[in-house]
Design goal:
single chain; alpha+beta; Phosphorylase Kinase, domain 1; 2 domains; seven-stranded antiparallel beta sheet; 4 helices; 33% helix; 30% strand
């Protein structure tokens, strides 16, 4: 209720309506901020699980288990000291018509090598090089490798014997890549 001058009287219905109308939004924002503060506090107090950021798999064990399902002898290299395998599988990848044996290895100083093997075609191998540019041909361990390079210094080494193709992808030191290539050449039958 307002007096004759138009000023709202304390405790009047009009004053209470005005207070409720303006304070709903303020109270809602305060409640939301209080809930967020409690949630953030709980997250900081909750114990965090210790997770190893590098996944390590037993690629040799996986190769032994997978060999019975493969139509070809799987290449299983020995890895250099300080290196680990973070993936190994015998699978039909994506929409490929070929089953491939895939291994991925990580080493010190952000080095990485993967090897994929399949009884496939030259087109399959070419697709695996991600449109890298053919750079040179080398012979390692008696096998001829076509090397492809990307602008990001990634290399693809492709070799085959008959219709057995192997594609090595790498961002590693040349000696390390040669070591893997030598083992691939020795095991490629």
């Amino acid at each position: 209720m307002a007096d004759e001058s138009g000023v709202m009287l304390p405790g009047s219905r009009e004053e209470m309506r005005s207070l409720r109308k303006n304070s709903n939004w303020v109270n809602m924002i305060i409640a939301i901020l209080a809930c967020l503060a409690v949630a953030v506090g709980i997250l900081f107090l909750a114990p965090q699980p210790e997770v190893d950021s590098e996944r390590v798999v037993d690629y040799q064990g996986i190769a032994e288990q997978s060999q019975g399902n493969a139509d070809f002898d799987l290449i299983v290299p020995q890895i250099p000291r300080g290196w680990t395998s973070n993936e190994a599988s015998l699978d039909r990848v994506g929409d490929s018509e070929y089953t491939s044996w895939y291994m991925s290895f990580i080493g010190p100083e952000d080095q990485w090598v993967s090897i994929e093997q399949a009884e496939a075609s030259e087109n399959w191998a070419k697709r695996k090089t991600d449109e890298a540019v053919a750079a040179e041909k080398v012979t390692v361990g008696g096998a001829d490798f076509q090397i492809y390079r990307t602008e990001e210094a990634k290399e693809y080494w492709v070799t085959h014997k008959g219709d057995m193709y192997v594609v090595m992808s790498a961002t590693a030191a040349p000696d390390t890549i040669n070591s893997f290539a030598d083992q691939v050449a020795a095991q490629l039958k």
